[in-house]
Amino acid sequence: MPLRDHFRDETHSASSWQGFHGGWPMVIVQHLFRLLPEGYLAEPRVQLGSFFEIDIGTFDIDEGVEQAYDMNFNGQDGTATTLLSPPRPTWSVETEFDDEYEYEVRIYDVKKRKELVAAIELVSPANKDRPKHRQAFISKCIALLHKGVCVSMIDLVTTRQFNLYSELFEQLDCKDPNMGEVPVPTYAATCRRILDRRKSRFDNWYYPMEVGQPLPTIPLWLNDEQVVQFDLEPSYEETCRVLRVR
């Protein structure tokens, strides 16, 4: 069955692109379950909005607990600690932090303490709508590649005429000749970095896609020797069927 246009009104009447992008990663995981060798695990990741992580937390405790702590720690009678006034910022400005939208599947090597070995990144409109968002997506992919993670990009976005695979190689100061003069906005691609005798090279597989045409099979490298040939079509069709996308 062919690739649909998930960003037009006729498709929206059945299911929004957000619903499809949110559902496809889990279906991909289900299909990878039957393909991955023993010792490998696939997990979906869907992140909508900014992500915050606390590394060191400071808690406000009541006076009784604070005094008991002072007695136990200092051997004193629980005199309350005087809080110091915080320093004023040297500069303060109003700004907005951009929301981060990520739709991806991550593949781990469980034998190596769940080491990340491959990632499938589904491009969203927010990844392509402005230069800094495209740069953030590309920087993430390059960071993964430098760590030896195989990265696959799947871009179904028809409303933004940018090709992030092409822009990734522009940042690396090179170009894939298979893209042609005007790279298409919808495509699938797999990239991996190889260290060979202290030299670094990138191997790449690029598949232009068109609405109305079948989806390709992409390679997912688990290590230098093992590769899974993943046909995107079955998981794509199953997601469309469940969400009643025509």
Summarize the structure.
The chain is an alpha+beta fold and 246 residues long. The protein contains six helices and eight strands; from the N terminus they run H-H-E-H-E-E-H-E-H-E-E-E-E-H.
Task: Outline the structure in words.
With 246 residues, this protein is of the alpha+beta class. The chain has one domain (9-49, 99-242). The chain contains 6 helices and 8 strands. The chain has helices at residues 9-12, 17-33, 63-74, 131-146, 164-171, 232-242, and strands at residues 40-48, 101-109, 115-123, 150-155, 187-196, 199-208, 217-221, 227-231. It has a 6-stranded mixed sheet with strand order 1-2-3-4-5-6, sandwiched between helices. The relative contact order is 0.18. Mean pLDDT is 83; it is low at 50-62 and 68-73.
Backbone shape:
globular
Question: Which structural class do the helices and strands define?
Answer: alpha+beta
Low-pLDDT residue spans: 50-62, 68-73
Radius of gyration: 24 Å
DSSP strand tally: 8
The strand order across the widest sheet is: 1-2-3-4-5-6
> How many discrete domains?
1
Mean pLDDT: 83
Question: Cα distance, first to last residue?
Answer: 10 Å
Oligomer: single chain
* Biggest beta sheet summary: 6 strands, mixed
List the secondary-structure elements in sequence, H or E.
HHEHEEHEHEEEEH
What are the salient characteristics of this protein?
28% helix; two-stranded antiparallel sheet; alpha+beta; six-stranded mixed sheet; 246 residues; 8 strands; globular
SSE blueprint:
Blueprint lengths: L8 H4 L4 H17 L6 E9 L14 H12 L26 E9 L5 E9 L7 H16 L3 E6 L8 H8 L15 E10 L2 E10 L8 E5 L5 E5 H11 L4
Parallel strand pairs: 3-4
Antiparallel strand pairs: 1-2, 2-3, 4-5, 5-6, 7-8
